[in-house]
Design brief:
The protein is built from 13 helices and 15 strands. Strand 1, helix 1 and strand 2 form a beta-alpha-beta unit. By secondary structure, it is of the alpha/beta class. Helix 4 packs across helix 5, helix 5 packs parallel to helix 6 and helix 7 crosses helix 13. The strands form five sheets. A seven-stranded parallel sheet has the order 3-2-1-4-5-7-12, with helices on both faces. The chain has a two-stranded parallel ribbon with strand order 6-15. Strands 8-11 form a two-stranded parallel ribbon. The structure holds NADP nicotinamide-adenine-dinucleotide phosphate.
C-alpha cells in the first residue's frame, strides 16, 4: 500500500499532476489537502479535473483521492489529529504544490509560501520520524527564484544568488521556501521542481489559467510591443510540466535534487513567435524595445488605478513584461537527461491557444459538479468533443 499527501491538487498545475499520477497508478491513495474540506473539496476538485476527465472517470478515480480539510495559513495546516495520524500511517511521499501566486500581495505570499511551507516542512519531518523515513518530498517551486537577470541561460546550480534582487513577493517567498526546505529537511530525499512560464496545453487549445494567456494575446494584438525580437521566451505547456512533476516525484532514483522543467536553449525567440502568427495571416506588432522602461514605469503608476480594464492591463504588464523581455532561459539538460523528453515548443501550439482563449473570452466553460449517479451519462465539454 503506497499513499501520497498533496497540497494544491485543486489548482491548475495540481490538476495535471493528479491526472498524471492517476494515469500512472503511482499510488493506491492520494490525500489531497483542500481549503474546501471533504464536501467543498469535491466541487473544487471537479472544477479542476474537468479539463482532464469526464464525469465517469472523475467518479471512478474519486475513491482513491481522499480530500482532507487544510489551509496553508492555519497552525499545523489546520489538519485534524485524526488526519495527521492517518497520514503518518499511510503516506510515504509528500508533494507540496500549493502556493499563493498573488504577485501584488506581500501578505498573501508570506502567509501561503513561507508560513505554509514551514508547516508542510514540519509535517514532513513528523511523517519521516513516525515512519522511519520518507520515499520523497517534492516541492513545486518556480524558475523565478533566480532573481532579476538579463540575457542569460541559467542552470539549476547557479540559480540561487542571494545578491540578486527578486521580481516580486512571489519570487522572493518561493526562493526562501526552497532555502527552508534545504536547511530543515535536506537530509531527506527531496526534489525541487521549477517550472518557468507555463501557458496552455500542447495537446488541446483549452486552458483554465488565463492571466499570462491574456497578456500574451494582448501583446500579439497590440500595434507595438516593448520587446526585442531576439528575446528568447522560455514558455512550456502544462501537460509537460504536470507529467514531469509526476514522473520525477515517483521515479525510484533521481540523479539530481532540483530540476528546471523548462524549454532551455530550445526556447523560441519573439521573432519566431511572430512568424507563426504571420503565417496564419494575423497582423503582428512592431518590436520597439526602447519602450520597455517607459512601459514598465507607466504600468507601475496605472496598476493602482480604480478597478477596471486599465488597472488590469497595467497590473498584467507590470507583473509579466519582465518575463517577456528579460531574455533569460533556464537550462533543461537535467530534466531532458532524466526523462528522455522535453516540452513541445510553444510555437507549435500557441496559435491554437491564442484563438481559443479569445473566442472563449478568457473563461473556461465550467460545468457544475455532476451527481454521482448521473456520472455515467454526463461528460465535460472536453470529453464531448
Ligand atoms: N502556473 C504557472 O505558470 C507556474 C509557473 C511556475 C511555478 N508555478 C508553481 O506551481 C504551483 C501551482 O501553481 P498553479 O498555477 O497551479 O496555481 P493555482 O491554480 O493558483 O493553484 C494554487 C493551489 O494552491 C492552493 N492554495 C493556495 N492558497 C492556499 C492555502 N492558503 N491553503 C491551502 N491551499 C492553498 C489552491 O487551493 P484552492 O483550490 O483552495 O484555492 C490551489 O489548489 C505553485 O507552487 C506555483 O508557484 C506555477
Amino acid at each position: 500500500m503506497s499513499a501520497a499527501f498533496l497540497t494544491g491538487g485543486t489548482g491548475y498545475l495540481g490538476s495535471y499532476v493528479v491526472a498524471d499520477l492517476c494515469e500512472r497508478g503511482a499510488f493506491d491513495k492520494i490525500y489531497l489537502m483542500s481549503r474546501g474540506g471533504e464536501r467543498g473539496g469535491v466541487d473544487k476538485l471537479w472544477r479542476a479535473m474537468q479539463l482532464h476527465w469526464d464525469a465517469e472517470r472523475f467518479y471512478a478515480e474519486l475513491p482513491k483521492l481522499v480530500l482532507v480539510e487544510g489551509d496553508l495559513g492555519a497552525p499545523g495546516l489546520g489538519l485534524s489529529e485524526r488526519v495527521r495520524g492517518e497520514l503518518a500511517r499511510e503516506c510515504d511521499s509528500v508533494l507540496h504544490v500549493a502556493a499563493s501566486l498573488n504577485r501584488k500581495s506581500d501578505k498573501a505570499c508570506f502567509n501561503a509560501n513561507l508560513r505554509g511551507t514551514l508547516s508542510v516542512i514540519k509535517l514532513v519531518r513528523e511523517l519521516a520520524e513516525a515512519r522511519g523515513g520518507l520515499r520523497r518530498f517534492g516541492y513545486v517551486s518556480t524558475t523565478a527564484v533566480s532573481g532579476t537577470r538579463e540575457h542569460q541561460t541559467v542552470t539549476e546550480a547557479e540559480s540561487i544568488d542571494w545578491d540578486l534582487s527578486d521580481y516580486d513577493p512571489y519570487a522572493r517567498t518561493k526562493k526562501f521556501a526552497e532555502h527552508m526546505i534545504r536547511e530543515l529537511v535536506g537530509d531527506l530525499p527531496i526534489v525541487i521542481l521549477r517550472p518557468p512560464t507555463v501557458m496552455g496545453d500542447s495537446r488541446r487549445p483549452e486552458t483554465t489559467q488565463f492571466d499570462m494567456v491574456r497578456f500574451y494575446t494582448w501583446m500579439v494584438d497590440a500595434p507595438a510591443v516593448p520587446i526585442h525580437p531576439d528575446t528568447r521566451l522560455d514558455f512550456v505547456p502544462a501537460d509537460f510540466v504536470g507529467s514531469a512533476i509526476a514522473e520525477l516525484f515517483t521515479k525510484p532514483t533521481l540523479r539530481w535534487d532540483c530540476y528546471h522543467l523548462s524549454a532551455g536553449e530550445g526556447s523560441k525567440t519573439a521573432r519566431e513567435h511572430e512568424q507563426v502568427f504571420q503565417a496564419a495571416g494575423i497582423r503582428t506588432p512592431f518590436f520597439v524595445p526602447g519602450l520597455n522602461s517607459p512601459a514598465l514605469a507607466l504600468s507601475g503608476q496605472l496598476a493602482g488605478a480604480p478597478r477596471g480594464m486599465v488597472s488590469l492591463a497595467a497590473s498584467l504588464m507590470k507583473v509579466f513584461l519582465p518575463y517577456f523581455s528579460n531574455d533569460v532561459v533556464f537550462d533543461n539538460t537535467r530534466v531532458t537527461t532524466e526523462l528522455g523528453r522535453g516540452p513541445t515548443p510553444f510555437t507549435e501550439y500557441g496559435l491554437a491557444l491564442y484563438r481559443w482563449a479569445k473566442s472563449a473570452r478568457f473563461e473556461y466553460p465550467y460545468t457544475p459538479t455532476p451527481a454521482p449517479r448521473a456520472a455515467a451519462r454526463a461528460t465535460s465539454p472536453r470529453a464531448a468533443e
